[in-house]
């Protein structure tokens, strides 16, 4: 029996299985507390746990290098990425070079060979296990060097500085540096298994380079993702090291496929030695069982936003509170990626005296950290977060989702009670899209510059474009999503192509014929200043339905540029401020969402404030003037757009 330690790095509450060989180790423990107090963590013994924010999972590698003095084999994987040791596994990889799985269960463990026996058998006569090479051209890069250049949170100057250090300290690696940089195949994700002597050599080599690089880089002005530079750059260094190692023909180096588990926090797979601490940021099943005894029903509600939309998220949540039923329990979730501690405190403050409410704030930013989401215009990555609802709320079979730029004027339990049958979602038909179809509005250039109807039919593949749904208000049949896995299809699709209305398009593309249509009163757009010029010109039945709903809107949706906190004269703005009055944001007349950030500057005017993003395209800057002099639906606008497309093609 070999002495093998395959360390499984984790940093949050997740599904883990401990065996003799698979050793979970918590990273970044110096900044938090041990999630499993009796298990390994990177803050004990000789450690660099305090460097975790910039070194990421390398703090576990450093710990093993300095503290594991007996293992014959030492390696690393992650809580949601594992090696596949089962030789009979034939599941195909995705474009990112990993085999996706929904969650860890008995079938998963058997499928990947997650056992001591499989691991020991796999390592027979092997010196190094490397991650299977991934072709970076799948991510539109030319080679490994270009992959670093294109990294959304990476600075190529850091890599060049690192290579200079490497050349100076280890000049014998020059050929391997060149060879790896120009190669289209790379070793990524910082996963490997090495015989002890090789591991010790590699760790000494790696940290010698990184600690020197740390002295030369100034990280003061970097955001949380950019700050992870040493963790990122080590993936390229591993590739260079393995390239050099392969020059020794006596070594047996094999590549091994990897998995990616989408839902790594089901609560079903725990450490064999103890129960984990209570799952943070979600209402557990046991808590729900207690709540059910005291209330007639539990209503789970999800919204998603970042710091820019905190003010409207506050108005939305306050409107839910003020229209609630004390005999019901409302389980509210904010899915976020960048809320400040102050903002989180303010939201929790709103719930301090509410017995029939719970607030759960869940950060999912890491899930999208390395994904190319093809964002444009005013859309932010938070728009995609709703797709994660079936995964992050496994305790519910049905969930209500609401966009942040809304207020609710009716008890949301009535929306939750809607019988949507066996449909995957419920939503209101998008009457704006119906207008776009009527007026032959052209979609984005990158999507082909098609008319709306052509875009919906040809690009999205919809059979009936008039069934297009507005995704601001949704009822998720999460049970069906988990059964069909369509949410995983959408998550994979979102990075493959550009879309006009992003995840809303994807929901319509993948769920046509599987949507229950709600009463329009559940999603009444405020008009965005275009009530007379656009909404009154909608097809007659749709127009009549919209204006009837405006008389008694159960949910008001402030979609478009004319947000009430930006333009207090916008339709229904007074209702927005009515709900805002009892929140910590009641005095914020100049809202968070339009306070200039490091990518914006502000131009003051006598009557109103206009915020201009210097990264806007000419098309975006001219948009307000085009809308004024070439209104939507007019023949002259259609003619000018066709001329614009023709001109672009000639350039």
Automatic annotation (TrEMBL):
Which residue range or ranges hold the DUF4422 domain?
Answer: 6-244
Per the record, the coiled-coil ranges are none
Please name the Pfam families in this protein's record: DUF4422 (PF14393), Glyco_transf_8 (PF01501)
Answer whether the UniProt record assigns the keyword Chaperone to this protein: no
* Sorted UniProt keywords: Glycosyltransferase, Metal-binding, Transferase
Q: Does the keyword Calcium apply?
A: no
| Cleaved signal peptide residues | none
Question: What is an example of a GO molecular function annotated in this UniProt entry?
Answer: glycosyltransferase activity
Listed name of the protein: LPS:glycosyltransferase (RfaJ)
Origin organism is: Commensalibacter communis
